[in-house]
Specification:
The complex is a heterotrimer.
Chain A (H helix, E strand, L loop, with lengths): L3 E10 L2 E11 L4 E5 L6 H9 L6 E6 L2 E2 L10 E4 L11 H11 L4 H14 L15 H13 L5 E5 L7 H18 L2 E6 L2 H7 L2 E6 L2 E6 L1 H6 L4 H6 L6 E4 L1 H5 L4 E4 L4 E4 L4 E10 L3 E8 L3 E8 L9 E6 L5 E3 L8
Parallel strand pairs in A: 3-8, 3-9, 6-7, 7-8
Antiparallel strand pairs in A: 1-2, 1-4, 4-5, 9-10, 11-12, 12-18, 13-17, 14-15, 14-17, 15-16
Helix pairs in contact in A: 2-3, 2-4
Chain B lengths: L6 H29 L3 H4 L3 H6 L6 H10 L1 H32 L5 H13 L3 H14 L5 H24 L4 H9 L4 H12 L1 H17 L3 H5 L7 H6 L9 H21 L1 H8 L6
Chain C lengths: L3 H32 L18 H8 L1 H32 L6 H9 L6 H12 L6 H8 L7 H4 L1 H26 L3 H9 L4 H28 L4 H6 L11 H11 L3 H29 L3
Classes of the chains: A alpha+beta, B mainly alpha, C mainly alpha.
């Protein structure tokens, strides 16, 4: 079991209110991702759940039991840190066995569990090495191994992939997702990378300045962001925002349209000049300065032949236009 | 990238630095030589001492017979090891607190601790002397061990603090998540990770305690006197017996010199008091 | 990484050290303050009447005191000057590529391992003795009158001995700091057209600032209480030519058994040391992000 409930959780460091008050329920077995720009309080929130920081007020309950005052060791949670935080003076085997040793488990039981975890994570042949002799990806696996042997109520991940190179990151992302599918244990995952959030999460929690902006499945957030912040944060490249006369036409203070929802057409309502053209192969991203509107990013076919200073006309898919009021909230 | 340097430059550097090194080391070298000479030879002109005299090991046995080197030696060992280990027991938890749970005042506390080191020993010599006299601690190894522990404590704490700060806090947090209590965290994770730093600290403090000459001279008489007092007894008339004085000096400093030789790496780190990397 | 529980644990863990150091500081200091206002001589048993500032008056107006003040400053200042400048030169030299660096380094460091009583005795007898000392022999050999070190220049002689003991320490710290200097910075400066002097002045020296601060701090702590070197060489003499404040207090209290005056002297020493300490801590606060 691993249901985590936060009610009115606040955290202040002196005068600074990092988390001004959060209510959130993480269901058993869910993969929840906290995402937001740096300094939004997502790591603090995770550390509050872990018990590495005290809440200033509010209640954190794990499986219905109040855990607010429990020390980290008593919460039954396991954590994978950004730096992996492996014990450099212990072998991989001892690293993975450490939580079991702390729990007072017998040597033989420790050994079986370590072997089993090592097999799952392809670490069997590295068990007697020290962390210093492993590659980044292997260290990451050891950190995960150390977390899974305890069979915790939930896993907490604090930006675990940010120290890996791009290729490895994609691989580990898939491994963690598969691990979740086989273990079916609750996972809470913190990242600033919306791609990780979109690809891994059952439920995304978008945080900004310590507040929860929106909670929902990846596609819900993509299709129906509740405000301009979420709209801008989820999706890559970023949604285009247009103010002024064009927005007024739609009865809004600001309108938003994603790059993939603008088409290059023979005869469209918008005309502009191509600035930068990034040819990625699969896609082409054009920066187009549209007359009377401003600069927009447009996604086009990968092999399109458009270059700097070309004049083109564009048409937005009108049903994909998001409208925001003057406070940045979505209008229905 | 280090630039390639010609052997000629290297040789010139070696000659200059080597000369300086020998000059710095010369006083020690000289007493090593004199300690193996007879008294008559030891007071001859330096060149004669070097090239026109024989060797003897009598001085060492004479010194042992006259001033009981081994008793002083064992006092030095007990006092310096004892005060260092006692100091570690108090300092490790304190340094853990300051390094991993820093509060607003941590820096002030650290500075205050160091400032107790600024208090000149003479300022408190009289009361300590009287307290020791009245409690029977005067001339006792226990008393001296405690005093040396206290005077070196700020330095031990400071050094451990600087070493501990190099250890990422996330590792200790990981231990906490893994179910380690405070005791396990310090015993199984922090201390083994800090072994090099702790070793440097131990070495430096043994040296400081071994060589401490204010309290050891003023608080001991016969029983607990360590080697500092042993050698001080050669300051008056006997001092003129160069060979025996040299032998006694070598016997007093040899343990530390040898220890230094074998643990150069840790020691070099320790000698910088952990303050410079 | 701070929860209430860990903060509470931290307080508990640091308290033994704080309590011990506090007691070590406050109990004897309180007693010293108390004794300093009594007429208290171990040779004249009986009542120890309260005499107010009398002991301070005697200690401060004693001509030995002003001499001791000057001597202390000269000793500390002299040794610091020699060791810092000498240490920088040694460090620059040892930082160059050479053969057998380890052996040379251990030779340079060795004096630090020598206990003060030993180094004082060795220098006194084997080197500075006008008849049998090596310096005396060299002078005589060259046809000069040998210098009677402890008779003619007692304080300078002690400075030489103490500087010999502390030069290794300064060298080592400065060398370590120098080795941590990013070589690319120096190469960039070279590309920018800086010659060796400007590289030293604008890059190496600022980089060494922190290390120099550490050297000055730690050495001052130890130099203010230099004792054994004086005890075994000059006994503070001739007259008061090499008496420092530390030594003067020792003479009053343990040689003349005048606890009252000795304590007053101790209080004065503590106040002086605190003035120096405040000064140093300011300097360090800036330079040392401890």
């Amino acid at each position: 079991m691993g249901q985590i409930t936060l009610s009115q959780v606040r955290k202040s460091f002196g005068e600074v209110h990092v988390i001004p008050g959060v209510d959130l329920t993480i269901e058993d077995g869910e993969f929840v991702v906290f995402v937001g720009p740096s300094g939004c309080g997502k790591s603090t929130l995770l550390r509050l759940i872990a018990g590495l920081e005290d809440t200033t007020s509010g209640i954190i309950a794990i499986d219905g039991k109040d855990a607010t005052a429990l020390p980290p060791a008593k919460r039954g949670l396991a954590m994978v840190f950004q730096s992996y935080a492996l014990y450099p003076h212990m072998s991989v085997r001892k690293n993975i066995a450490f939580p079991l040793k702390m729990a007072g488990m017998s040597e033989s039981e420790q050994a079986t569990r370590v072997e089993r975890a090592a097999k799952v994570l392809n670490l069997t042949s590295y068990l007697d090495r020290r962390p210093g002799q492993l590659s980044g990806g292997q260290r990451q696996r050891v950190a995960i191994g150390r977390a899974i042997v305890r069979e915790p109520a939930a896993f907490l991940f604090d930006e675990p992939l940010s120290n890996l190179d791009a290729a490895l990151r994609v691989g580990m992302r898939q491994e963690i997702t598969e691990l979740h599918q086989s273990l079916k244990t609750t996972m809470v995952y913190v990242t600033h990378d919306q791609v990780e959030a979109m690809t891994m999460a059952d439920k995304i929690v978008v945080l900004n300045a310590g507040r929860i902006e929106q909670v929902g499945s990846p596609l819900e957030l993509y299709r129906a962001p509740v405000n301009q912040f979420v709209a801008g944060f989820i999706g890559s490249p970023k949604m285009n925002f247009i103010e002024g006369a064009e927005a007024k036409k739609h009865g809004a203070s600001t309108i938003g349209i994603r790059p993939e929802h603008i088409e290059i057409v023979e005869d469209g309502p918008w005309t502009g000049t191509v600035g930068l053209a990034e040819h990625l192969g699969s896609d082409t991203f054009l920066r187009v300065t549209v007359d009377g509107i401003g600069t927009l990013t447009v996604r086009a076919n990968g092999e399109i032949d458009r270059h700097r200073n070309d004049r083109i006309t564009l048409a937005p898919q009108t049903d994909k236009i998001h409208r925001f009021d003057k406070d940045g909230r979505s209008m229905k | 990238m280090a630039r390639a340097v010609s052997n000629k430059t290297k040789t010139i550097n070696t000659v200059i630095a080597g000369t300086l090194g020998v000059l710095m080391f010369f006083p020690i070298l000289w007493i090593i030589i004199l300690s193996f000479k007879t008294e008559e030879d030891a007071v001859r002109a330096p060149l004669e001492v070097l090239f026109q005299s024989g060797w003897t090991t009598d001085n060492f046995s004479t010194v042992q017979a006259r001033s009981d080197y081994f008793r002083h030696f064992s006092n030095s060992v007990i006092i310096s090891l004892g005060s260092t280990l006692l100091g570690l027991v108090v300092a490790i938890p304190a340094a853990w607190s300051m390094a991993f749970v820093p509060a607003r005042r941590t820096k002030d506390v650290l500075m205050w601790m160091l400032s107790t080191k600024m208090m000149p020993p003479v300022g408190v010599l009289v009361p300590i002397y009287l307290i020791f006299r009245d409690t029977g601690l005067l001339d006792s190894r226990v008393g001296l061990t405690v005093v040396l522990m206290l005077i070196n404590l700020p330095i031990i704490i400071w050094m451990l603090y600087t070493y501990f700060r190099e250890i990422p806090g996330e590792i200790l947090e990981a231990a906490r998540m893994d179910g380690a209590g405070l005791k396990e965290e310090i015993l199984y994770v922090l201390t083994p990770m800090a072994v090099p730093g702790i070793a440097s600290t131990i070495l430096l403090n043994i040296i400081l305690a071994w060589n401490e000459a204010f309290w050891t001279l003023n608080l001991t008489a016969a029983n607990a006197a360590p080697l500092t007092a042993f050698i001080a007894s050669y300051s008056s008339p006997e001092g003129l017996f160069y060979a025996k004085l040299s032998a006694a000096s070598i016997m007093a400093i040899a343990p530390i010199l040898i220890m230094g030789w074998f643990s150069q790496k840790q020691l070099v780190r320790g000698l910088t008091f952990g303050a410079v990397k | 990484m701070a929860t209430k529980a860990s903060r509470a644990a931290a307080r508990m863990m640091i308290s033994p050290a704080v309590i011990l150091l506090f007691a070590w500081m406050i109990v004897p200091l309180g007693m010293t303050l108390y004794f300093s206002v009594l007429r208290y001589n171990l040779l004249t048993p009986g009542a120890n009447p309260f005499v107010g500032w009398e002991n301070y008056y005697w200690f401060l107006t004693d001509p030995s005191f002003s001499a001791a003040m000057v001597n202390t400053l000269v000793l500390v200042g002299g040794v610091l000057l020699i060791t810092v400048i000498g240490g920088i030169l040694f460090a620059l030299l040892l930082d160059r590529p050479m053969f057998g660096q380890g052996v040379i380094r251990i030779m340079v460091i060795a004096p630090f391992f020598v206990m003060p009583t030993v180094s004082a005795l060795v220098w006194k007898n084997m080197f500075m003795n006008p008849v049998n000392g090596i310096f005396g022999r060299i002078a005589t050999g060259l046809g000069f009158q040998p210098v009677d070190f402890f008779g003619q220049i007692p304080l300078a002689s002690i400075i030489i001995i103490v500087a010999w003991q502390w030069l290794p320490f300064a060298t080592l710290i400065l060398l370590t700091a120098l080795q941590s200097l990013d070589q690319e910075q120096l190469e960039a400066a070279e590309m920018d057209g800086a010659n060796w002097t400007s590289r030293f002045w604008y890059i190496m020296l600022p980089h060494l600032a922190r290390a120099i601060t550490v050297v000055i701090l730690i050495q001052t702590i130890f130099l203010l209480s230099v004792f054994a070197e004086i005890l075994v060489t000059t006994n503070g003499g001739p007259g008061t030519a090499s008496t420092t404040v530390t030594y003067l207090v020792y003479v009053s209290s343990l040689l003349q058994y005048d606890v009252g005056i000795g304590s007053a002297g101790g209080v004065v020493a503590v106040i002086l040391a605190n003035i120096v300490a405040i000064f140093l801590m300011r300097m360090i606060g800036k330079n040392l992000d401890a």
